[in-house]
Every structure is written in C-alpha cells, then in structure tokens.
C-alpha cells in the first residue's frame, strides 16, 4: 500500500459474518440442519464474497484506477464501483455485450454509473477472451497505473481472501453450499475448510467448464487441488442471469418462510440446489448444511 492510499480496512467490515440457523421442514424432516452463512451482512456496499475477493486486491491496487470485467448484472462490478466511491479511486467496468451501449441502464449498471464507474461495452467475442482488447488501450482506458482485475475479481489474491470463509466455518458445518460464477469463492472456501468438511458449488452458468476454472485457481493459489469439493450443475436454470418460473417460485417461497430477501441470480440457485439435495436424501441425518449468502437483491438496498 502506498503512503496515504485508502485501505479497504477503513470500511470496517463485520467479520466473521453471522451463522444463522433456520427452521425449514424440507431439511428437518430428514434430520438435517440448515444454516445461513450471512456474508451479505459483511458490508452494506461490498457484501458477501465481493468483500472477501476485493479486499486483498484493493490493498494491492493502492489507490490506483481499477479496471475490471463483468456482465450486465454483475454484482462484482457493483461492488467495485461502490468501493471506488467509498475509498476515492477511479473505476472502469468493461461490460460484456456491445449491444447494450446506448440503451437505458439496468438497475445494476445504473448503480455502477451512479457510483462513478466508467462503463465500456465490448462485443462478446472480445469479452470471452478475458484479455484486454487493443481497443481498451487505444481508448485510453488502460494506463501504466491501471490495476486490472479479472472477471468476478477471481485471481490468486481473491482465492486467498476467500479461504477465510472456510476457516470461519471450522467445527460449525459439515457441508457448505455456495453459488459459483467465476470459481474464486469456491476455490478459497474449499481450501479453508477443515478435514472432514466438504463444499458443494452450484454453477449459475451452463456449459460444465467451471470445474476446470476452480481447479486452475486452486493450482495458482496453492499449487494443487485443495479441500473436498464438487459441483452440481443442475440448477443454473438456463444460464447466467436466467430465472425460470420454478426458481422464482422457490425464491419467493423461501422469502415468505424465512423473511430473507433472496438474490435471484446466484443465491436463489444455490438454495434451490441445497433444498433439492435435502429432498433427495443426499445428506445423512445429523448433517449441518451451511448455505453461503453471497449477496443481496439490487432492490433491497
């Protein structure tokens, strides 16, 4: 951190995040205890896994301009923009989908813009490369002092930051469920868990490629696969930002049962998956299942 640069610790995160038991008969009838790991309460503007992944990267950025990537509904872009506003550094968001340029911004991107993030739309082919197109340099978006952060904030620093999530759950859960977008949270969570604990990742994108991404992140961060983890690919509901009627009905019902606003694109899919596994009898009686609540609905704040 350079002298005088604003550090993320200045934002006073609430750590460790609370672990709240909930009484849900879909679990209790099988002798399973459901717990909510409320990472969404870490910070009102940088909730959940966004704090855990961003904090080490913001320390490394040391007040420089942060350029990062995301889709049109990216929670990562929202959190990065909010951090820039709160800590006083410039942010640039490279958004997948050049057809979005010139259209009215959706609530997620509107929040990014309100927090001062400069939005730059690129076509999907360039975005899929996950590298900086030459146009970004030509447009003056990238300079010598720009700190480039991958999509979802998932890099080695982020994976190490998310390992603390696993450590916080030592002795408190047997199985931990988490939504998977880019893989960084699961990679760190699984590495931080104790022997005998396992993690289940629920991809929010279709395609079956995220297992390789998680493994690559773990190898970069720890040198090899770390922890007991696997993916259940059945609950993406059609892909990124897709919400089908079954998921909407489930999420609304969960909100009514437990009074918790459920973010649809990540958290709902993870809870939907855990509930299905409980109903299928996949958890032995006596299992404590922790569901990581990684974010909040845009409209809830």
Overview of this protein structure:
By secondary structure, this protein is of the alpha/beta class. The chain has 2 domains: 13-48 and 154-300, Rossmann fold (3-Layer(aba) Sandwich); 65-145, Rossmann fold (3-Layer(aba) Sandwich), CATH 3.40.50.1100. 37% of the residues lie in helices and 16% in strands. It is built from 11 helices and 10 strands. The chain has helices at residues 25-28, 49-61, 75-87, 107-114, 124-128, 134-138, 156-168, 184-192, 210-222, 245-258, 267-279; strands at 19-22, 33-37, 66-70, 91-96, 118-122, 147-149, 175-180, 198-203, 229-231, 288-292. The strands form 2 sheets. A 6-stranded mixed sheet has the order 1-2-10-7-8-9. A 4-stranded parallel sheet has the order 5-4-3-6. Helix 8 (184-192) links the parallel strand 7 (175-180) and strand 8 (198-203). The mean pLDDT is 90.
């Amino acid at each position: 951190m350079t002298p005088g640069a604003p550090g993320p610790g200045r934002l006073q995160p609430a750590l460790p995040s609370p672990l709240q038991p909930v009484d849900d008969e879909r679990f209790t009838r099988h002798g399973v205890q459901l717990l909510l790991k409320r990472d969404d309460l870490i910070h009102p503007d940088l909730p959940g896994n966004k704090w855990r992944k961003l904090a080490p990267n913001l320390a490394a950025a040391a007040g420089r301009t942060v350029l990062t990537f995301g889709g049109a509904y990216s929670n990562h872009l929202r959190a990065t923009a909010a951090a820039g506003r709160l800590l006083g550094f410039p942010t640039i968001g490279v958004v997948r989908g050049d057809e979005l340029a010139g259209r009215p911004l959706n609530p997620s991107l509107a929040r990014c813009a309100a927090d001062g993030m400069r939005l730059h739309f690129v076509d999907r082919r360039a975005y899929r490369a996950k590298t900086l197109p030459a146009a970004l340099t030509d447009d003056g978006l990238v300079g010598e002092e720009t700190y480039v952060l991958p999509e979802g904030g998932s890099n080695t620093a982020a994976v190490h930051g998310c390992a603390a999530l696993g450590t916080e759950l030592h002795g408190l859960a047997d199985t931990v469920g988490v939504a998977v977008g880019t893989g960084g949270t699961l990679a760190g969570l699984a590495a931080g868990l104790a022997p005998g604990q396992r993690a289940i990742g629920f991809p929010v994108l279709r395609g079956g490629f995220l297992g390789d991404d998680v493994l690559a992140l773990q190898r970069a961060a720890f040198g090899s696969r770390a922890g007991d983890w696997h993916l259940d690919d059945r609950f993406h509901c059609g892909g990124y930002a897709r919400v089908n009627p079954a998921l909407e009905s489930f999420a609304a019902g969960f909100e009514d049962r437990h009074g918790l606003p459920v973010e649809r694109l990540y958290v709902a899919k993870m809870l939907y998956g855990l509930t299905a596994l409980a109903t299928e009898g996949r958890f032995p009686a006596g299992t404590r299942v922790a569901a990581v609540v990684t974010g909040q609905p845009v409209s809830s704040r």
